[in-house]
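Hello again, I could really use a second opinion on something today. I've been puzzling over a protein and I'd love to understand its fold better. I'm sending you its amino acid sequence along with the backbone structure tokens. It would help a lot if you went through both lines with me. I've dropped the whole record in just underneath, so have a look.
***
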Amino acid sequence: MSVLKKASAGLLCAAMTVSLSSCNLGGPDSSYAAVINGEKIPAGIFISFQQNAYYDAMDYVDPTAETTTAAAESGAETAATTPFSDKSIDGKPVRDWINDQATLEMQKYAAVEAKFDELGLTFSDNEPEKVQVYLDSIWDYYGEMYENYGISENSVKLITLNSEKESLIFNHIYGEGGTKAVSDDELKQYLSDNNARINYMMIELRDKEGNLLKSEGKAEMTAKAEEYIERAKNGEDFNAIIHEYQDSLTAEFSGINAVIGSTDGMEGTAETTAPEAEAAAEETTAASEGEEAETAETTAASEETAAPAEDHSGHSHTTVISKDGIAPDTAVVDKLFDGTAAPGDYFIVEATNGETLYVIQYLDLFLDETYFENNKENALQGLKGEEFDTEVEAWASAITVERNQAAYDRYTYEKFEE
């Protein structure tokens, strides 16, 4: 920024293409992009929408894609990269498509401004200040980039405030007390149709060496999963069962490490003779028989003084998954939303890669009392977002646009390629 501050006014206009009438230097006025509803839309707003349209265009055409043509005489094929400017979208040259999209966004911008005033809506006392704080937080990082494109901080502020106005209009129509208010029951149904709360455990289908289990080993793990489900159905806390399984894995892993550790430095073990091994075994047997009575006497006392088993009933292993998500596994998602399962059910799902069994406890989505309030706004957007977008587009299409060709000629998408 320090270099830019030292530049002359003429250099600033040339390098930054700032949309200010004072930078026209006697040429056509390109400080505004269009007149809509009698208001001049700053060029910076147009450039911002133009930038979005440029990146949207990438979803339709690949700027680096090659086209193959065959020579008329030889029939030999040659590949060449068609310039992005020569490509088309929906039958329009890319340049026109980008500018038309940016123009439509300006129309929607103006439509929201007009509707906000028509409905007599206002911001809360601190809304503009919150927007300014947001801008201040990003301008130090991205301000120079925006300005190099010709987008002033004021243009970004106007767009951000317009987005806030659009949200207020949306809530005025569909929110509580709105002209087309959506009930809590509708919102809860939407959330239930698109989300599910589960508690689950994972049982690996691999052996200690990491190999996938064969049919017999897999059947054993499945039987273990079924046993866990049966215990949960009979009243045992599922979280405690999960911890039990996890603890068993930890103990097994510790046992393996202990065996490995006990062999460290045991030189000559393989040379122990059979008679020596037999004598050691007999000595161990005698010692064991001598200790058996003492063990029996201390067992009861040990059971009475041992620390009580850890209570895992307060632990939570729950998560909420989305219908269009992939976690914890697409097979789990498919099962939960295929219409065959309901809250309260337990079931087993094999992972798509065949490496894991998921033992699922299907819970009530609203088990967490805060869930609905925290997701109410998202549900409203999901239910009515598209409908509202269509309405905004209808407002926009009814608005007459007078393009400022000087701005359209001056501000082209090529600057985003530099």
